[in-house]
Amino acid sequence: MSNIMNVNDKLATFNDNFSDSADLTEVVGRSLWQDARIRLMRNKAAVVSMIILSIITLMAIFAPWLSSHPFDEVYWDFIQVPPNVAEGFWFGTDENGRDLFVRTLYGARVSLMVGLVATTVSLVIGVVYGAVAGYMGGRIDNIMMRFVDILYSLPFMFFVIILMVIFGRNIYLIFVALGAVEWLTMARIVRGQTLAVKKKEFVEAAHASGVSTTKIIFRHIIPNILGPVIVYMTLTIPQVILTESFLSFLGLGVQEPLTSWGVLISEGAKVMESAPWMLAFPATFLAITLFCFNFIGDGLRDALDPKDR
Amino acid sequence: MKIKQFKQLKAGLLAVSIALSGTLLTTPDNEALASGTLRIGNMGEPASLDPHFISGTWESGIVGNMFLGLTTEAADGTIIPGAAESWTVSDDGLVYKFMLRDHTWSDGKPVTAQDFKMALERILKPETAAGYASLLYTIKGAEEYNTGKAGPEALAVKAIDDSTLEITLSGPAPYFIAQLAHYTAYPVPSHKIEELGKNWAKDSNMVSNGAFTLSEWTPNAQIRLKRNPQFYDAANVSLDELVYYPQEDRSAVLKRVRAGEIDIQTDFASSDLKWLEKNMPDYVRIAPYLGVYYYPLNLDDDVLKDLRVRRALAMTIDRKILTEKVLRTGEVAAYSFVPPGTGDYGSSPEVSWKGMTQAERVAEAQKLMKQAGFDKSNAPTIRLSYNTSENHKKVAIAVAAMWKKALGVKTELFNTEVKVHYDNLKTRDFQAARAGWIADYNDPQNFLNLMESRNTSQNYANFNDNTFNDLMRKAELEADPVKRNDYMRQAEVIALNELPNIPIYHYVSKNLVSPKVDGWVDNASDIHRARYLSIK
Amino acid sequence: MFSYILKRLLTAVPTLLIIITIAFFMMRIAPGGPFDQERQLPPEIEANILKAYDLDKPVYEQYFIYLGKLLQFDFGPSYKFRDFSVTELILSGLPASFQIGGLAILLATFIGIGLGTLAALYQNQKTDYAIMGVAMTGIAVPNFVAAPILSLVFGVYLAWLPVAGWGDGAARNLVLPVISLALPQIAYIARLTRGSMIEVLHSNYIRTARAKGIRERLVVIRHAIKGALLPVVSYLGPAVAAVTTGSVVIESIYDIPGVGRYFVNAALNRDYPLVMGVVIFYATLILIMNLIVDVVYSFLDPKLRVSG
Q1: Chain C CB within 8 Å of residue B22 CB
Q2: Sign of CA dihedral B20, B23, B25, B27
């Protein structure tokens, strides 16, 4: 539980790291992004990671056409067999005689979806909340951030478990529930950034010329704080995927016959000696994916960090 | 130059980490366990050690070694005299008179008939809020007292003198003697409860009359029992100490058994069996167990209220594949509700289609579905609920596959955690669901009772068949065991025709017992009292 | 400074009250009750039990009853473990959790900062990649996989250490759980340290120190580490609270009698008072740790020194 819980705070420190980047954003304007892209493309680890991730994503999307076995078909004569190329069980089968290869790809669908949707939810809530708090300032800011602090002090796992229990095992609600918990750090980062951006001339100019608050927030503030937000996003995705796997370990994961890497890994961990393939394949996929996201995150951070230029 | 200096820093860090791990490793070991100590992987933290507040088999395993009921279990699980040396029964089978054995509590105070009377009054007292008190409703006045309709004086339990106890039943219940070995009927030391309140069942406070007494209970760490020198048969108890580890993770406990840290594991995962049979076959103990794994079908449901659909669903579950390929631990395919070998029931009645081959059953089932207005293209969707567990998941996936293949029935697998699952069953918010029953006492009534309409809390299917109910009533009032069994067999035939509950398999008990342990006898109740065990 | 701390402690009270309220009502919205189980209770008996715990009263009334008892520091009885009160359960779990969590966080801090510093100094060299690769593995392998592998290898195959068990806190029994708990923390701390160390090493004051001819080792130890520690310190605050309150995975795999399992099991068991107990306990710990972090922060970074 712990490693999942406290990661919320892992990047609370991003404010420090990025306080300078925001200063420069509006000065450099469009060229910053082009510049960043070039720098990112020069980062080999990040580029390779993006390629691998794309391959995994494509495999997940086209999973039904990549295997001769449906993901929920039960083969009574092939229960828990090791990888068997002749029969098309490239990754072996699980305890119900279902093909592990196609299930791993279906698991990728769910795990990547969880990562993306939950992160998007956390992004939307976090960015809007943080930007509003930061821009409004004063008492509103105080109250809003107080609320974030309170949620921070709730045991994260308890929060998620209760949400899962209340919503039942609806897969979409799992995404939303995870996102609803992950937005806290995002809100903090965004608020910090907003505080820095809001003092800039162009924001003050907009304010002086009577542009509405909503417009300022969405047109001027948010576009100018995207750098750290994107970096934090790439780190939230793996976090959410791991959280889902922990929930699966507790038996709160997605409903059968759907599966996720978390479900596959927790099933595999129980038979790691007698059926090591059940653990090895999904765990490898998970690990590679998490590595990729982190390399991309690091690459983005370096690319967007003006100091290294 | 820069690089060199940081090599030193690197070396320094390495040294720190090694030193840190070094201090951890060199600290002395905890004291080795003495040879007369049996270490048991208990697979669950007991909710309580007070016999009136428990309901699980893992609790009963511990508490049963500390207390001695009027009757108790032999090494093979059969019922033998316990705290009562002998007893007499009136001709109508209603009045039992018990002559107590001359024995004492572990603090030296004699165990008296009053202790038994006060224990029964305590568990039945409404304010005690004992979850399992209803098991004692066989005693006259028990239900009335427990539900607040009468005072304690209604309870027909009399301590005639210190060593004679008289109990009157509400109806002839031949299983009453077996029931008395159950923990709900254990005596409790009323003198200690008065003194210590709810703390009486903790650590060395605990006073008991069985072969062992509690010496330590650290929640989630261990429970230690030590030999009770006051036990009446102490001379024949070989073990000095029992240590229970409450760890639930079965694969983790298995590793401890392999490392020699635990001698007995009371459950293992069926997926481990293949490995176990190859690598430690002399540990594996699998025996038939008095329990049934079944799927109740909600009779209030529009689709499932049709008997033809229920029968088709029941027939298309290939129990041979399920037990031999999916479960693989010797579970017995169930064609009856009452497990074979229950009490003196003889062989249970079985479903009429047992004699068919699976192919014939599928053909017949398809015909039934057609009659009910379904074919493969417009087959109904059925939600199958189960609570979180690897085993339930495996069975549900397999059954769903069988239904889909044979009937085209689409199954929505619906997994919830245990609290939600049983809440849904209770409120009948389900179509098909997983349920199981392990016998409290060795009698068919304990199983068939699950389908009586007056059993509001466990008749999940909402089965309400007057003939069935009448037969069960008649059996309850019948003193002649042959006639009584006959009534119950007739009732079971009705249940197997109507199929409110689809029997799937009969349980087996799965234990790992170190070959060093002597005196272990596999039995259908899966009760293995430590007083009969010893270490080679 | 003192009045600042006092003020923070005072604002903690309403914060706690809100947390208690949220947790209390969330728990009651969840379907299933504490007494739903395979051995269903007859309705009359369930009524007896509900009455004994005041659960037959309306929820808002239960809420005020609970608050009233809290004022007397009575956290109520556990529904699941009927012989114990919530206070007893949490207190009995604390020593194990603190011992394992404390050691793990200590180990993680030292190794993590060390590795992170090394990686930063060798930025984009082999050492850096090797360290960060290992650190990433620590994050990418879920602990419900890492812990059984460790106990299989060191407990069963090599038989160097006990597979599981508490053994009253003997050092042998602590090694594997501490390592399992520390692994992901080492990874996080190393990454954090590396990031901020790189930044600090590029900053002006380090350049000045170097220009003054101060020896590189001293530059790092005296100046850079102190600056680079800020994010680590703010990470450590909540991390200490999280790690010392235990982990359900580590505790169930190594059979540790800690409080970590209650966070999950109490919620799954609908053991309302125990859930409330651990929520309050955790929130209090977090509030205290955050306060400590802020105070430490102000010492490390004079710019942020709080005005008293």
Answers
A1: no
A2: negative
Q: Is the peptide bond before A257 cis (omega within 30 degrees of 0)?
A: yes
DSSP secondary structure string for all residues of A176-196: HHHHHHHHHHHHHHHHHHHHH
Burial of B304 (0-12, 13-18, 19+ CB in 10 A): buried
Q: How far is CA A250 from the centre of its chain?
A: 20
What's the pTM?
A: 0.85
**Which chain C residues touch A149 with a CB distance below 8 Å?**
15, 290
Q: CA geometry: angle at B501 spanning B498 and B503, to 5°?
A: 110
Structure tokens at B436: 């199981």
Residue owning tokens 């993006």: A50
ipTM: 0.85
Dihedral angle computed from the Cα positions of residues B260, B262, B267 and B270, in that order, rounded to the nearest 10 degrees:
-20
Of the candidates B395, B434, B433, B437, the one whose C-alpha atom is nearest the C-alpha of residue B291 is: B437
> Quick check: C245 and C285 in contact, CB under 8 A?
yes
Q: Does C68 touch chain B (CB under 8 A)?
A: no
Distance CA(A229)–CA(A215), nearest Å, equals 19
Tens-of-pLDDT digits for all 536 residues of chain B? 344 444 444 444 444 444 444 444 433 333 334 468 999 998 888 888 999 988 777 888 999 999 999 999 999 989 999 999 999 999 888 999 999 999 999 999 999 999 999 999 999 998 888 888 888 999 999 999 988 899 999 999 999 999 999 999 998 888 899 999 999 999 999 888 888 887 888 877 889 999 999 998 888 888 999 999 999 999 999 999 999 998 888 889 999 999 999 999 999 988 888 889 999 999 999 999 999 999 999 999 999 999 999 999 999 999 999 999 888 888 999 999 999 888 888 888 999 999 999 999 999 999 999 999 998 888 899 999 998 888 899 999 999 999 999 999 999 998 888 888 888 888 899 999 999 999 888 889 999 999 998 887 889 999 999 999 999 999 988 888 899 999 999 999 999 999 999 999 999 999 999 999 999 999 988 999 999 999 98
Fold of B290-508: Dipeptide-binding Protein; domain 3 (3.10.105)
- Number of Cβ within 10 Å of residue C307's Cβ equals 7
In which residue are the tokens 């017992």 written? Answer: B513
Domain ranges of chain B: 290-508
First to last CA, chain B: 67
The one-letter amino acid at C286: I
- Is the CB of B275 less than 8 angstroms away from the CB of A255? no
Chains linked to A by 3 or more Cβ pairs within 8 Å: B, C
Asked if B219 and C89 come within 8 Å (Cβ–Cβ), the reply is yes
Q: Cα–Cα distance between A91 and A76 in angstroms, integer?
A: 17
Check if A143 contacts C (Cβ < 8 Å): no
Residues with Cβ < 8 Å from C117, sequence gap 6 or more?
B9, C193, C194, C197, C220, C225, C228
Rounded to a whole number of angstroms, the CA Rg of chain B reads 27
> Touching check for B415 and chain A: CB below 8 Å?
yes
Strand partners, B159: B165
